[in-house]
Amino acid sequence: MSNRFTPTALGAALALALQPALAQTAAHADLAAVVVTATRQATRANELLADVSVLTRDEIAASGHSTLEQVLAGVAGLEYAANGGPGTNSSLFMRGANSSHTLVLIDGMRVGSASSGDVALSRIPLELVDRVEILRGPASSLYGADAIGGVVQIFTRRGADAPGFSASAGIGNRGTYAASAGLAGGDERFSWNFQLGQNGTDGVSALHNPANWSYNADRDGFRNRHFGANLSWRPAPGHELGINLLRDSGLSDYDSSPKRGRFENDQDLATYSLYSRNRLAPNWTSTLRLGRATDDATNLTDGRSTSVYRTDQDQVSWQNDIKLPVGRALIAAEYLRQQVSGTTAYPVDERSIRSLLAGWNGRIESHLLQFNLRRDDNSQFGGETTGYAGYGYQLTPQWRVGAAYGTAFRAPSFNQLYYPDTGWGGGNANLKPERAKNAELSLNWERGLQRAGIVLFRNKVRDLINGWPPANVGKALLEGAAFSYAGRLADWELAASLDLQRPRDEDTGKRLRRRADEQFKLRAAHAGGAWRYGGEWQLVGKRYDDEANTVRMGGYGLVNLFADYRIDRDWSLFARANNVFDKRYELADDYATLGASLFVGVRYGMR
């Protein structure tokens, strides 16, 4: 590890050592959030064996961030890369795993492109997000394919107890703007939420290296519109029917060749779902959900369409939660149909997956246990069985230890399987799923408003799909240690994390592309009177942009500041300054990142 991170490591260790002292200043309150993603059942965070983070609506709004990628980049265990500024192709690495190894869900619906295997994170608007749950570690035994590194689940905004109107608007440098409005309300039987908005920026040139064959000095902007709706009806106690809708449409510029052309990506992301949650017996709740997720992308050159890639994912799930004398059981069945269409002619353009899963989690005195087993039958590559077993022991009211072992897999994308041979090779229909085995140990401490944790993990991935034409020739070893702390000292909220990891190609010993061995993140926020203000400090180690580790990208440090001033009960002003020291750095070789940025605005929320 580079010497410049030694003070950071010492500081994190010191913070861990000081936590009992800090706890004496805080009220003893149980702040454990209720988490769904880790078990597929509502469970208090301090009763979970999995490594989970939760971001609430208030935390997202207070952060001042304008994009989901910015929010996720500040979460422990996550690393973000992008091919330029806002709206460009991006990657999210969880615990050093590939970006395609993270499953993204919106209100329980799987989203993303089945052609490329990517998820358009830049097209998920923050204004529609109520909370985000991040589950680190393999989760195929709960969610099926692609959850090798973990799961990010986004829950959209719901109705309120009483009618209310909200709105916000802001502007920033580089022609940045954002505006949104929403209406929410409800009573004992009905609730609703409607949100709409738009945002955009002139951005920067996606490429900053004039030597790159696609370099163009023009600005590559991004324009985006979104709409979301949630409706629910409770005809009787224990019964609820609901509708979730999300639609986002964005247009982003990018650099390509010939250099003087105008290149744009027009992408629509949408999810539609219906659900029925019914308490069939005092100890039995049934949830039936069906819907569709769509990812529709069109590339344009000088206003003319050059390629279209569309994915439609039809999904049905039936989950049964059963309270037992000890713990809770989970029994579920799922169906997923993925279809791709557009200008590329795939010899096979759809597949279906039928799944059965079962689980149990519970507490026996000081012992915490969780078991899950899942079987996926895929029309392309056959059957896959995954499992998870976790055990925890409450040493004292403050200290808990845990151990877990889980398996996971990722299904090849349609491009990897069936892309036509254009002279450089095509897809490989004989590809097998990538498979992973993960073991981890954890130590957690909680007292009053203070929490700390240490997780050691070792995730071994085989049958990695590498090269073009693609083949199952790779192996990766993802191992590391993650330290985290969150607490309150007087009027200050503090959060820190230190990730020390080794994401390596097991055959060559080389570091996996665009991933650092070290990350440190610190956040501090002060609330007093009408003011709330704070800052973030993020340190990321060096990375490489090629598999041979010859194209080096240096480490970097970023400082962000934010402030919020409440004018009265309903009105507030907010401001955010990102990269305040105008640090020049790269997330991908030759691609630009934003320098110093300022965004200010006003927010209204009827209370």
Quick tags:
single chain; 58% strand; Maltoporin, Chain A; five-stranded mixed beta sheet; 22-stranded antiparallel barrel; mainly beta; 607 residues
At a glance:
It contains five helices and 33 strands. With 607 residues, it is mainly β.
Question: Topology of this structure?
Answer:
Layout: H1 6-23, E1 34-35, E2 43-44, E3 51-56, H2 57-63, H3 68-73, E4 78-82, E5 90-94, E6 102-106, E7 109-110, E8 129-136, H4 140-143, E9 150-156, E10 164-172, E11 176-186, E12 190-204, E13 220-236, E14 239-254, E15 263-281, E16 284-301, E17 304-323, E18 328-342, E19 350-364, E20 367-378, E21 382-394, E22 399-410, H5 414-418, E23 434-447, E24 450-466, E25 471-489, E26 492-505, E27 518-528, E28 531-540, E29 543-544, E30 552-553, E31 556-566, E32 571-578, E33 597-605
